[in-house]
User: Fold these one by one.
Assistant:
Number 1:
Amino acid sequence: MTRKQRDVLSVEWVKLELIRTAYATRGGLFAAMDPRMVLGWYLMLAIIPWFTHNLTVLAVLFVMGAVAVALARVGPLILALFVFGLIMESVYIFVAAIFFGGDVSTVVALLELTLKLGTISMASMAAFVSLDPEKLSDALLSLRAPALLAFAVSYGYRMLPILVEEFNTVFDNYRLRSAPPEKPGILGYRTVVHWIKMAVLSFYPIFLNTAQSVRTTVEALETRGFTYATVDQRGRNIRLAYLKVRWLDVVVLALTSLLIAGAFWVGAQWPIYHTDLT
């Protein structure tokens, strides 16, 4: 059991989880949809929570976000970070209410903000975990976004595995060349400080290696006519020919719209506003 826990919490596992997240290898409902429709779905859940203060509506939207995360098959690393942040936010709410002169209305007001941010965060996870670099870049290009923006998104995603690999290599080199503390100290704080120093020092060689990789990649893309292909309409048509709205996209957006309308109907029947408790 201990061996399995060490394997799961290793740097290699974290690196693989980041790569799976960046390249949408887990599949899921939104991975099978048109990327433009996925962005539209995300904007619905990202914008609508800001137009209401009804806790009933926000609670329903929060549940919708949780279901979307399950359907998108979000990885355990991203999900664990979200749950940890949500728990810490809940602790902050009660601490703020108890020690800073707040009351029940303060807790409910902060709970409203937590529900909004939680809904938007889960919608972001579900949408962008399901889009690989090519799909996201092509969706932005199809929506008439600047070609350089679409290229930057695609290139940024592709640089993520390289950065993680470079950091892992440089960090291991520092571990081999640096002697660990003779005594770990109370709760091993000397070891923690030693690892933090190595992590900070590892970023400087990464910057140099990344700059070299960026120059090589840009020169290779320009040699192949990447800039002209994104500006010329014929090249855009060939690149975006596979994008097509299907019945699944229409069903998901229509069902989401109905659920949002249902959330507002439920909120109108059983309204809970934080101003009611003041």
Number 2:
Amino acid sequence: MDGQRVYFQHVGKVKVKWHRCLPDTAIINTVSFKREPDGWHVIFSCELPEVEIITTLSAAVGIDLGLKSFLATSNGESIDPPRFYRQAQDKLRRAQRAVARKKKGSNRRRKAVQHLAKLHQHIKNQRKDFHHKLTLSLVRQYGTIAHENLNIKGIARTSLAKSTHDVGWAQFLAILSYKAAEAGTSVIAIPANNTTQACSVCGALPVTPLTLKDRVYSCAHCHQVSDRDLNAARNVLRLGLSLQTLT
């Protein structure tokens, strides 16, 4: 690797365009490349020094992931889901029809397939950019972040599959995890049992369980009334801090 070129075994030196510089403390373990619809990308697998995690109880937050709002925090903040896939459905539908109309093996079909792949890649990049910006904002504001340990694969097999894949919870949590490690922020995953159903003030469960249509939480015991997602985020924070104290 010499500034503008990277050496690959059995290939030689290849000119590359750098999007970001590698950290000075990074130790490169492997270098590989893969083909994407917009060209070839070089991937560096690096070893970085461990970052000491300094937890701050005064700067802790609980987040509740959902589909109505992408996430709600225990401080009352709500982030709307971007819905990149749903917004691009018309373009994708036209691109898929263009592929179907082309003769197999023809250059026109190859170009149509490439156009469709670029549309999917654009949606993927939009979603990843949204996740990166949101996780960066969280780790800059908070020293401790608690979230539910969701069964994402199980939810993706239900009627909510399209919306679940569109928000990309798994990618968001993965990015949050490594950004928190870099920033020295503690991330705590807590069991998702009853975080939505229990009252965040008194801990009582409702007589009739809440459904997805119920957006307001009203406790029959302590008479607390709040947004359903806010109530869940406060439960997540309380459980997260209790687990942090035990460890």
Number 3:
Amino acid sequence: QRVNHKRLRRLLSEHELGLSRQASKHSPSPVQKILGEAAGNLNLVAGQDLGPLEAFSTDFTEVAYAGGDRKAYLMAVVDLESKYVPGWAVGPSANRKLAMRCWEQVREQMAILGESLDEKIIHHDLDSVYTSYRWLHAMLLGDELRVSYSENGAKGNPWIESLWGRTKDEIGSRITEASSLPVLRSVFDERFRYYNQERRHSSIGYIPPREHLGQTLDTLEPEPQIAAAS
């Protein structure tokens, strides 16, 4: 005789019985096994003296817009040394699709800069997107980068956290006031163009990241200097 779950619960309660439940555990993927075996040696950037465009940091951050009623996710990639941001993307979910859209922009910008991605380092946390086959295939096989992981969350990835902090402090009101996702994207497009071309950074001599790259990379022309009015 079939009974529904409500009757079953009532009978179990009356007789002080419990129904044991055991969820099946998923076996770790080959990627998870490899990362587990390499624990303690996953961070390739800690303590390293890296030059411009040699290592990049990335992550997702959640942003509230439309007066705080809607949420979106921003992913950006920042160069550890120069603070240059070669790619960013905004979308409704922090997923592989958004990550690959952001990375495609990085590829295009690096080509414009005349820089190869071979042997560069991409550093991020152990988020499922960054341990997925699609992401790792693109990084390791497609672009031949080296993949680095923070093993203690945000503490091991301060470069992108610093970018998020500055961005939200400086344009937080514009983010909140954006009325739609397309408007929000235009806010970040404007922000990162300004960040790369005009915003001065104390860590690179109080000049913009693009100007710093022009001074330190043989592949780039220095930024033109504007003569001061006499």
